[in-house]
Amino acid sequence: MSEKSQRLADLLAKIPVPAQALPSGEGRSLIEVAFLCVLGRRLSESAAEKTLAAFAGVYSDWNELRVSQVQEFQHLVQTKNPELAVFVARDTREFLQEIYQKIHGFNLDVLRGNIAEAARFAAQLPFLGTSIGHYLLHLACPDELPISPPVVRTLDRLGLAKRTTSIKKAQAGVEGFVPAAMRADFAIRMGLVVEKWCDGKRPLCWECPLVLSCPFGKKTEREWKQSQKRREVQRVREEERQRKDAEKERKRAASDEKRRLIAKAKDDARRVRDAERAKTKLSAKGAAKKRPSESGTRKKAAPKKVVHNKATQDAARAKKK
Ligand code: SF4
Known about the structure:
Bound molecules: iron/sulfur cluster
Structural class: mainly alpha
Number of strands: 0
Number of helices: 12
Shape: elongated
CATH superfamily of the domain at 3-219: Helix-hairpin-Helix base-excision DNA repair enzymes (C-terminal)
CATH architecture of the domain at 3-219: Orthogonal Bundle
Helix content: over 70%
Radius of gyration: 49 Å
Largest sheet: none
Strand content: under 5%
CATH class of the domain at 3-219: Mainly Alpha
């Protein structure tokens, strides 16, 4: 084994295998293999196969299934769990929709023997996944190195190949260190790296299992860590600023409250004074009113005096006469 082969084998060993075992391509069309991969995400291997057979028994054309409502075919999903049946039925529709948009049909076997088309197909499959896409690429072209532009980009980042847009040139540069027995594993695991971490524009190198062996990844991880540090400093500053603002606001609210309480106390005191003053005035008025009524008693007695005087005068006059 050459040094590059050994390095590649070591790298592949670091990439976790997909959780689900992929179905064999023996005696199956490529769409059936892809279908089983999707059904196998939520169902056991035998339930996935029975479900596929049930779909095929009712729908003679996958396009009919693609345009059917979930509730029309969810009962065909081989499970006793109705919620799971709905999820599987939704997956089915999404999968068929993706395939239809990619090749305007469902016969993936047209890709067999056509590495350029198969590579184009495998390169971008958001729902099916690039790992399964590259497995299908390997099944479609078993005698060729299963390589696509995103895998070439990843190999270039890893320092294992030169970047090129020509699949043939890329194959020529790489196939020397990918033995035939390693091709299926190479397709599935490198597809997984592309799918999960090695995005063209935003690779997640700091999460990638290959980062310690990847020159591009190390640089990206270093820059990411620096940016994380900067963001952390900014976050701490921002938190401190917010804490100070909150403290200022709290103090301002406390002094406002204090002022309000002082003003209220003054206001209350003024009201009390005013009330006392009003009460004093009222009692003074009351006293003033009382005095005239007392002199009225004396005035009332006056006529008696007049009557008495008059009577006295009348008596005096009568005496004179
Ligand atoms: S470390 Fe980064 S560049 Fe290297 S393979 Fe992983 S994701 Fe791609």
